[in-house]
Amino acid sequence: MGKRNSRSKAAAMFDSDDDSSVTSSSTARSDLMSVSGTEDVQFDQDSVLDQALDALDEKRGSTRENAFSTIIDAFKSNMQHQFVEKKFATLLHQCLASIKKGSKKASAKEITLASHAIGCLALTVGCSDNAREILEDSVGPLDESLARSTDVMKAPSLLDCLAIITFVGGNAQEETERSMDIMWRVIHPKLGSNVVAVKPSAQLITAVVSAWSFLLSTVGNLKLNSKNWQSSISYLSSLLDKEDRSVRIAAGEALALIFEIGAIDKFNANDATQEESKPQESYIFLQGLKGKVINQCKNLSVEAGGKGSAKKDLNNQRNLFKDILDFFEDGYAPEISMKIGGDSLQTSSWSQMIQLNFIKHFLGGGFIKHMQDNEFLHDVFGFTPKKKHLNNGEHRMSGGEKRMFKSPNSVLNKARTQLLNKQRVLSEGRNFGHYSVSMVDDET
């Protein structure tokens, strides 16, 4: 009886007519956002989250959408360790239920919100067994959903979710490569006799390239198979000629990262695989591709504004490709410095910049809060913020935080080596191992 009353209360809180859903959702979120700082407040937050979680069982789609919005806002505004400790599995499987095909007919908006909630959950639990569970349970449904539809509304969120959960929960390089391959199949599907190729939209291409680059920035050991790199670089080079500026910028960042890794300059005839019968020709072709990319970057760095071209977007493009040209000339990536509260966060490589921009894009307004309080991100970026002091000058941690982060046997400590390896700055002279992701299918 108590559970039924709880669900009824949740439904009343998040249910609304379609034309007033924004107002009702905003009211629920404002109730949540208005509380912060005390143990009583934490209880209030958990109570609102519990009601939102209950509302995910409701039949009305707008009710579930409002509940997801409240959950996402809660995870962005505070580190919800206590709630996760109690309701992790329930929340994950409710999110997956909205993504999977089934009796619950989810709208594109609901699938988008559910995907984003899973990514927020992964960033909250950090490098842990829970992150492994998120990846293992979610990669299949995400792959299936992406294969079923390339809806420009939900596909980017599905891709972002796949990128984040792989970034946090992936232990083996094969897992990262699997996710990268799933991403490429969105714009390079395997075509059967009854499959018709659909030209991907600019927004979809941008989302795929950005998510793929984000994961490529974490891959440490690469097999320099020139056939794979020829197809990869050729495709990205072709995107530099597209009309859409966001496509060109995403492709430019991906190419800069590939060159930082050393996919071309480190390759020579002696590094060739046995499958390649003419390694010297492949190397020459790759060098020619690099020359073509350099010329394209020169043109884009001085491009005049076209009709309807936003000045800010044009300047962003020019500055990016100037940075890429500088990188080709002196080998130094652009340095970024941003203020997080009173602290300075700095990056000095393309891989770090791509990771920072991607996570900032994903968290949106919650980025600063997470950079201040999320220990997983502290490890990722080597960032140590000044501790916040509450009331008596001491930092108070919740019971969940203490168990997750302070125990000698904490999952964070156990995973520290993995994180450091994943986020190690790529440097010249690194020995390369295996890499098998190809931009196109190698069917013969």
Automatic annotation (TrEMBL):
**Compositionally biased intervals (Low complexity):** 21-31
Q: Which InterPro entries match?
A: ARM-like, ARM-type_fold, IFRD, Interferon-rel_develop_reg_C, Interferon-rel_develop_reg_N
Q: Which domain of life is it from?
A: Eukaryota
> Where do the Interferon-related developmental regulator C-terminal domain residues begin and end?
374-425
Tell me which positions the record assigns to the signal sequence: none
Q: Region (Disordered) spans which residues? A: 1-37
User: What region holds the Interferon-related developmental regulator N-terminal domain?
Assistant: 24-329
UniProt record similarity statement: Belongs to the IFRD family.
State what protein this is by name: Interferon-related developmental regulator 1
Q: Which organism is it from?
A: Pisum sativum
